[in-house]
Design goal:
5-stranded antiparallel β-sheet, mainly beta, 3-stranded antiparallel β-sheet, binds zinc ion, about 140 residues, about 35% strand
């Protein structure tokens, strides 16, 4: 138990990587690294997406990266408030992350290639998630 606190809306309470929420609560951005092939995965997964090995370990991520692209959504699914901006960034570790960009940064002109930081974000009701911020 514990994963139900992740994100704006949760559809699952249990997962093999539920420690992810504890790491976020402690301010750590953690991915998983495959011990067999070295692939780093974020958000974390219990099985390697490349070689399917379950021999996985937690690995801290710097969270620093560059913006690859972004888009603003004008239709909001349950729990979201439109408009909001989604962004794809590549972290220093080579991992690509697709998530919301900080609400404060949405009004600024986002530029492809600019530096961003993946940070934890506390939501109401003890919920937590992550988002990208301009550096
Ligand atoms: Zn692997």
């Amino acid at each position: 138990m514990g994963f139900e606190k992740f994100g704006i809306m949760s559809y699952t309470k249990e997962t093999k990587v539920e420690d992810f929420v504890k790491h976020l609560e402690d301010g750590r951005i953690m991915g998983t690294r495959c011990k067999k092939c070295g692939t780093i995965i974020f958000p974390p997964r219990a099985d390697c997406a490349k070689c399917l090995s379950s021999n996985i370990e937690w690995t801290p991520l710097s969270g620093r990266g560059k913006l690859i692209t972004h888009t603003t959504a004008h239709f909001a699914p349950a729990g979201f408030e439109a408009p909001y901006t989604l962004a794809l960034a590549e972290l220093e570790e080579g991992v690509r992350v697709f998530t919301r960009i900080c609400k404060d940064d949405e009004k600024d002109k986002l530029k492809i290639g600019m530096y961003v930081q993946l940070v934890t974000k506390r939501l109401g009701d003890e919920r937590i998630t992550y988002e990208l911020k301009k550096i």
